[in-house]
Amino acid sequence: MSGLAILIPVALLMGLAGLAFFFWAMRNGQFEDLDGAAQRVLIDDDAPNQDKSADDSEGRGKRKNG
C-alpha cells in the first residue's frame, strides 16, 4: 500500500511532463511539416556527383589522347 503512495504521484508527474513536452513541441513547430522530412529522404542530390563523373570522363579522355 505504501508503494502506491509513491508510484501514483510519480506516474502523474511523468504524465504531466509528457504533456508539457508535447505542448512545447507544438509551440515550436515540430508538427507543422510532417511530409517534408519524408520527401526529403527521397530527393536525390546527385548534381555534384554528376559534375565529378563528367570531369573524370574528360580526364580519362585526355589521358588516352595525350
Automatic annotation (TrEMBL):
Annotated TM spans: 6-25
InterPro entries xrefs: Cyt_oxidase_maturation_cbb3
Keyword vocabulary terms for this entry: Membrane, Transmembrane, Transmembrane helix
Region (Disordered), start-end ranges: 44-66
Keyword Cell inner membrane appears in the UniProt entry: no
One Pfam family from the record: FixS
Keyword Ribosomal protein: no
NCBIfam families per UniProt: ccoS
Name this protein carries in UniProt: Cbb3-type cytochrome oxidase assembly protein CcoS
